[in-house]
Amino acid sequence: MSREKTCCFTGHRHLYSSYKAEDLKNAIETMVNKGVTIFIAGGALGFDTEAAIEVLRLKKKNKDIELHIYAPCNDQSKLWTLGQKMLYKKILKHADYVDMPSHSYNNQCMKIRNYKMVDNSAYLIAYYDGSVRSGTGQTFRYAQKCGLGIINICKEEAEEY
C-alpha cells in the first residue's frame, strides 16, 4: 500500500443538520484527482459509515479505487441496532481490506486504530467540529502533527461546555 495514494477519514458519529453528502463526495473526488486510490474508514457509525458508502459507490465506476476498513476491534458493533449491524456487515463484505487489531474492546483500541489510519495515509478527509474531547479531535490533531493534507467538511463548531 502506497501512503502517497491513501486517504483516511475521521468524523463524528452524529452529523449536524448542515451535513451534505455532496460535500463528502466532492472531497473524495478531490483526492482521486490528486491520485489517491486507497481510502481508509474506521468502521464506526456516523461519518465513517457515510464515507465507506460513498467510496463503495465510487468503486462501481472506478475499479482502481479501494476501500480499507480499520475497525478497532471484532466486537465493535456489539451494541448496535440490527439495521446498523446489517449495513456494517455489507460494508465489510465489499471492502478490499479489513483490519481489526483487537478481538474485543479495550481502552486503547480506538486510539491505536485512529493512529494507524493516519500513519498509513497522506491525506485526511474530516468531519470535525473543533471539539477537544473526542476521538475525532485526537485523530485530527495527530494528522495535523504528521503533516497530512486535510479537508474538513464540517461547517459547525462545537458548543463550549
Could you please describe the fold and organization of this structure?
This protein has five helices and six strands; from the N terminus they run E-H-E-H-E-H-E-H-E-H-E. It has a single domain (3-108, 117-152), classed as 3-Layer(aba) Sandwich (Rossmann fold). The chain is an alpha/beta fold and 161 residues long.
Name a few traits of the molecule.
161 residues; alpha/beta; Rossmann fold; 6-stranded parallel beta sheet; 5 helices; globular
Give the helix/strand layout:
Elements: E1 6-11, H1 21-33, E2 38-41, H2 47-61, E3 66-70, H3 82-94, E4 97-99, H4 109-119, E5 123-127, H5 135-145, E6 149-152
Parallel strand pairs: 1-2, 1-5, 2-3, 3-4, 5-6
In short:
Helix content is 39%, strand content 17%.
**Total count of strands:** 6
Q: Based on CA inertia axes, which overall geometry fits?
A: globular
Structural class: alpha/beta
Q: Kindly identify the CATH topology.
A: Rossmann fold
Biggest sheet, in brief?
6 strands, parallel
Task: Specify the CATH class.
Answer: Alpha Beta
Number of helices: 5
Taken in chain order, the helices and strands follow as EHEHEHEHEHE
In the predicted model, the low-confidence regions spanning at least 5 consecutive residues are: none
Main sheet: strand order: 4-3-2-1-5-6
Distance between the termini: 41 Å
Helix content: 25-40%
**Which percent band covers the strand fraction?**
15-25%
Cα-atom Rg, whole angstroms? Answer: 15 Å
Q: In the residues, how many domains can be counted? A: 1
Question: Which architecture does the CATH hierarchy give at level 2?
Answer: 3-Layer(aba) Sandwich
